[in-house]
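Expect chain and fold; thus:
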Amino acid sequence: MRRDVKTKRQSYDVVVVGGGLSGMAAAISCARHGVKTALVQARHVFGGNASSEIRMHVCGASENMAKPDLEEGGILYEILLDNKSVNDYFEYSKWDLVLYSKVKSQENLTSYLNTTMEDCVMENGEIRQIITYQQTTETRWIIDGKIFIDCTGNGTLGYLAGAEYRIGSEGRDEFGEKDAPEKPNNNRMGNTLLFKAVDRGHSVNFKRPEFAKTFTEEDLKYRTHSSMHAAQSKGDEDDAYLRVANFGSAQIDYGYWWIELSGEKEDIIDEYEEIRDELVSCIYGVWDHIKNGGEHGAENYDLEWVGMMPGMRESRRLVGDYILNENDVLANRQFEDAVAYGGWAMDIHAPRGLYDFDKLPSSIIGFEGAYTIPYRCYYSKNIGNLMMAGRNISASKMAMGSTRVMGTCAMGAQAVGTAASMCIKYGCDPRGIAEHMDELQQTLLRDDCYIPGVYNTDEADLARNATVTASSFKEGFGPENVINGISRGEGENRNIWVSDGMGKEGETLTLTFEKPCEVSQVRLTFDSNFKYAIKQTLSKKRQLQQRIGVPPELVRDYSLEFVLDGKVAKVAEVKDNHQRLSITDVETVLCDKINVVIHSTNGYENASVFEVRVY
């Protein structure tokens, strides 16, 4: 007798589909703002392209520390700092656990791993529920929601719902993009498999698999793949793609992002499995060439890990009320409804990837500074309750060449999750949040997100009207900086208090209020020194740029003294902090002064604080 698949049903306020870094950031931010949230992930681990299955490190607006003040903060940075506190040697099992723990420990958030969305149910132009299948439990989950967020990368939920979308490149005339092709085309950046090799300290042989492709030095002349080539290319002005887009692949032990294929059919998604099989033959063919095809400095190197799940760069882009374009990017445009930003160069890869042997693997259009991304790029133009975050946001092909990197995607996703929580709060659709844009922007700043040109004007922040003094400070780094509305350096303005050493009794910041006020929360933003990377990465080059442990500049132990009429009414102690944003909740206390007493850092000789907020 035939048996039916068991079916279960659950309802949530917000449903996020896709558990990469974007989906995680969207779901966590939504749940943190008190909204019942579901996160549906097709794989058995979180992280998407950054996960142990694919192992690409996070790139973002800082362009691998070329623009350090643009390093992403918020939930993404919090996750990376969690990883630095437990994972000194870049082990991916520990990284998986950090991501898993971050999701599973979040109140108001339910996750569904190994759960693939198969369909959605529509009503009056809105999504009412998604139909999913959890392979491990042989369960069909029907998940209802009020707001849905597409973080699938491919825009799969939007596609199933009938959302307007684009693929390929717009023609030059549509947005006046000077670097777009003259006519629209279906060229797309391809999928990549990565590998990790290790120096065994002695000669290691490699036997070429029968299925592997054969590559010559002529085939790979534009693709660095040897230790000698890497040394020769360093600083070469003609090899511009190395400086921005190479992600460290000039090293012989990790790579190579340029083992990339985009397929031959109309739809790269339809061809995913065929592309994967072709990539497997290419990655082993490239390694055979490196090992057996001439002198590449690889005599002692042995393959330690080879990915079998390609990372995708480009497929569908869902259309919102605004389509970000190249002109916005190059002009560092600041939108009134800005909720995120980008700074990565517009990075457009060769149309046929590896098989474009006569082309550089990537065309780089760099620029100084950062552009902002408007909220209107993060919700669907024609599906009323659909939002999106990740590489599938509303952008032209040219702009997507910058917005697609994971750091930028995650910051936009945190904004989307926060906006989704506000949709529930106000009972409106995503478009309706335009009426609450100041609240959205100020909430993001409070949660350690950065929006260029938008600063703290939160009327609820009691610290803004306090007088701030300090036990000591270095010249130019006075205590008043902690309430100037900017929680990171911007150009010559460092916007930070730095003590002049560390006294025996610690260093103290004092906030004095004009009259007694009730306080229940203090938020401190510490310095973590954005000039040093904190990536989870396989690249030895990127690993060597990092320091062991959490950033030493971070304050480790501190106490908060709540003072009324000269007497300490309450003390809150914080120990072993490793986060940039440290939040202390206390039972409501009446005070006219708060002493922030810093007892120790994680190794730095001075105490340093970017911002103090009091609620």
